[in-house]
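Recall that a protein's primary structure is simply its ordered list of amino acids. Everything else, from secondary elements to tertiary packing, is in principle encoded there. The following example makes that idea concrete.
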Amino acid sequence: MNEPTVRKKVIVQVMLGISLVLGVFSPLLMYVITNRKKMNIFYQETSRKALNFHLTIFPFFLIRYFLPQNYGNFIYIILAVELIFILNAMFRIGLNKPYSYPFAIPYIRGKIETREKKTKSC
């Protein structure tokens, strides 16, 4: 993959920053737009990874509503973990270093992963 420009990195970092406030909506919007318009693979992969991470975290927010009131701090732990992982991704993108979300379930497969599976099966 070609090295992304500073503009592309800033756009992705802004998307991740907005996702801290709005959750899954900004990565979903970027993923849909970049896939529909066949844009740069950098945008597609970063939005796909962020979307998978947010979709993995979302059930924990739902679980919170079924827990007793004594576990009210559970939501703050989830938010702190989410904040740490997204800030880590933002910094690593800015430094051109590889990054990943440690426990994100791959709900949406990337085009690179799909190509690798097809070549391994041949």
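The chain has a mean pLDDT of 84. Residues 110 and 116 are 10 Å apart (CA to CA).
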